[in-house]
Amino acid sequence: MDKDTASFIIYIIHKIARRNSLTPSQVYRLLNKTECISKYIVTCYDVLHTMSADAVADNALLWAKNHGE
What we know:
The chain is an all-alpha fold. The chain has helices at 3-19, 24-33, 36-41, 45-48, 53-66.
């Protein structure tokens, strides 16, 4: 994973945390447990980084919901 992708993941984690009154570590555990980071955010980074942060956050939460949480 390159620096830009890692920075994007951190940004999205913090965006989700702020919007849902969670800590970034809680969000990270949720996204990691459901493989959202590796199978969605990293894999689709080229497209996702062109979208709004709110849309990516919504999609990441939807992924987590559909994959176990």
